[in-house]
Predict the structure.
Amino acid sequence: MKLFTKQEALDRMNLLGKSGKPFLFIIDYDQAEIFIEEPHLINSKECLFNLNGFTNVDNACNINRAGGELMGNFNSDPERTTKLDKDIKWVVKPVSWENYKRSFQTVIKNINEGNSYLTNLTCATLVETNLSLQELFLRSDSLYKMWFKDRFVFFSPEIFVRIQNGDIYSYPMKGTIDASLPDAEHCILNDLKESAEHATIVDLIRNDLSIVAKDVTVSKYRYLDKIMTNKGSLLQVSSEIKGKLPVDYSAKLGDILFALLPAGSITGAPKKKTQAIISESETHKRGFYTGIAGYFDGERLDSTVMIRFIEQADGKFYFKSGGGITAKSNLESEYNEMIQKVYVPLY
């Protein structure tokens, strides 16, 4: 697929949206590497995707756990036809406690100085597995997933924005807990730190949508989704925010998307200053991790934040994960949460 600059991508998305032509888009965190392509021109030997049913995989899997209308092109046959014929090796080698502590303390220092209310701190964890990136893609079970040859695979449960019939929706996802813990649902919904973090992100996303839409409201607040992983089930807390776009929104799809980037859920608040803190504290380049990917089918747009992400570099695999840090955050809890998120949703 051809690589575009930010302005080239913005103009192309506007043009394709105005003409009602379907397209796929992949935008990295820094908005420096951007792919925009019409689906029939994508080489399936280089890129495979299944974005909420919009797919170039034969026998596409029709999955929807996040609620709402399922969007895209569908096939009634299941994608997953056979189990893996080998035992799965999955060895996690997280960043050291000392390195994470240094990054965490940098974030906390900035929060205490009033530079941020919430900062999303992420790490790159070395993982060893006997599965290829393509095998991980084909055997994973997620609302959104993509394989990009020799670069990355992701299987994300998080919606960025959806656009349909002139309405724009966002579903910020903040708050995770092991579903097997006693009274897990009550614990996550009543955790003061998690509640404050979620409220901050909802307020940030509501403000972001107000840049491009009118009548922005929080239509659902703090509901739970269950996510299956190779290590058991997780509960994830989300909210729904909705706004009304202008009548000619389809000719402004590029303007709309880039006005909302980077995603608030993986940066923090206030966004611009928090991005600088992220750059100072993190010890890896995010690349495509925490960027967005999605599609426009000629009428509707659906997109995801690229989390639950494995990057291939120098022949090794790095699983990138993290979480939101606030003044109430505990170092040990945040370190363990970062590791807990290093999973693959294999069946």
Observations:
- Residues 204 and 214 are 15 Å apart (CA to CA).
